[in-house]
Amino acid sequence: GGEGSEGLASSESGGSGFSLAASALPERRRPGGSGGRPRYEVVRELGAEEVRWFYREDRKTWKPFIGYDSLRIELAYRALGSGGGPGEPRAGEATVEPVCVRSGLYEVDVANAECYPVYWNQTEKIPVMRGQWFIDGTWQPLEEEESNLIEQEHLNCFKGQQLQESFDMEVSKPVDGKEAIHSLKLSRNHVDWHSVDEVYLYSDATTSKIARTVTQKLGFSKASSSGTRLHRGYVEEATLEDKPPQTSHIVFVVHGIGQKMDQGRIIKNTAMMRDTARKIEEKYFANLATHVEFLPVEWRSKLTLDGDTVDSITPDKVRGLRDMLNSSAMDIMYYTSPLYRDELVKGLQQELNRLYTLFCSRNPEFEEKGGKVSIVSHSLGCVITYDIMTGWNPVRLYEQLLQKEEEELEERWMSYEEQHLLEELYLTKQRLRELEERLHGLKASTIAKPPVLKFKVENFFCMGSPLAVFLALRGIRPGTSGSQDHILPRTICNRLLNIFHPTDPVAYRLEPLILKHYSNISPVQIHWYNTANPLPYEHMKPSFLNPTKEATSVPESESVSTVPSPTTSPVMVRRHYGESITNIGKASILGAASIGKGLGGMLFSRFGRSSTSTPQTMETGKDGAEGDDKKTTTVGTPPLSHSSSGFLEPTVELEHRIDFELREGLVESRYWSAVTSHTAYWSSLDIALFLLTFMYKHDQEDSDKSNLDAI
Q1: Residue 291, CA distances (Å) to 78, 318, 343, 506 in order
Q2: Domain extent for 194
Q3: 491 pLDDT higher than 70
Q4: Where is this region: Disordered (predicted)?
Q5: Which of 265, 349, 548, 641 sees the fewest Cβ atoms within 10 Å?
């Protein structure tokens, strides 16, 4: 019990060595005491509900399994022992199935006291431990070896003895001057029983002996001066009712570039997103009987690609930097390579389908009850996910280019011979297409081609996404309809949402690819998670990007005199985002928005807008802060319907907004955040609330409707 002893020695005065705050736990109820539990008047073996199982992920703190999980692990443990008594179960007498825990994401191997993930690979197993005796204040378990020895000794000496009548008396009565009625020596500690219910652990370290001698001479109680109070049985009884709700919505989390560098990163990032979402769920969605689960999709490590060819041609100078670039930027180069693109697409597609099939096999009711699937993709992962969903292929683009060349050829003057050859080529191609169609028809009749993905995508959330650049380079241009179908048909995916940090250097806007004038309309600002009564996103009115009070490089007269017609995009004084590669979306290569007033004054700051409040939040008008809100509204960002400054309302608006922007922190350095913002999405409470708002939307509407019906 060496490891446990060191932990205890550091926390003798109330458990300060442990990170689990005592205040976060309910008060201890004596087994058999208050709280509606059966009252045991005598000492007997611990019930399965009094034992608590723990797991440890960070090498420091043991975390308790919820009651439902703990009770099932304990029952499996007892089945494994086949009546082996309260100590260690006798090995080899029985085999038990692994116990599914933590909302079905992990399984516990009871025999080996290990926990491992079901849906992804993890090299390090997570240790689990059976808790019987616990430290006062922190309710951390004693190490199992010590715990078993203390429990055995306790039963040997006190089994069948009467417990004290009043638990309240036991807590308040001091143990000053009481001598131990029984002691047990452990390797580096000893345990004293001052009564059946008063058990203390003492460290036998030299410093502790000196401290004890001094405090005893001063008249302090031996027990309270240097001992750690122990409790038998956990603070809360484990019940099967203490279980998580059934998963009704799964979210596949897809990583982007650079995963080769740190293969476990997407698992850690997804865990961060899951933990953050749990906090938001508890705060805002606790009344809904549904549950969203996040699953990491690690598609990169299984791919061989070029083997080690790129590594072999990499010079040795600044090797570390080159390796980093090979592991990150190289993925983009692989994806644009006709040789490896298909391998990347297949890698992600197969992993998505594998995870979905595995999840459904373990949760048979998921599909029956209409479970939904969403995808959250990051960086290059957005582009690959999009291509899988839409079935886009560079060959199609090549065919379009050839067709365009043919049309251009037909337009210019040609000799008779050229015309004759062109006609022959045209007829031959037509014949070839007919043969291909017949062949495909035969194949289709014999083999029904399965869909690329085994599920319909409800929401596709892009985070820090370069998708807009890829689409623009493929020739997609703004249209005249405000429908998402222009870039992603609703039949494939119900809702597309593009989330970015204003200084993310990899992120680009999608809305201007659907309707051009949206390059002058600001992205929707994502609510801070602690905003009181936020305006629902669908009720937010579009607002123009350019604050008219800011200095710009365009003369004022020029901007006012040019009044656009209702059918054209409004001519505006633009905040200089910098020209993007394709001049579409107005998001510079330095980010989806400007990164401050440096850079020679060419990029204009958005600090004024983000540090006060935004036009979208001004529209609440519900609470007492309405007056203050009006004062802080930024000048020069009128709603779309405003006709001042020569701006007319465009005839077409988007059916649904697609671009959503995180609010900048008021303190962070823009230049630093340009470096860090691309990976800042995972632990953001604002993003967690945003994701859940859209995923719980229908459930909330149904819940509100049923409440109204009840009224």
Answers
A1: 31, 48, 34, 32
A2: 44-80+96-164+175-232
A3: yes
A4: 1-39, 548-570, 609-646
A5: 641
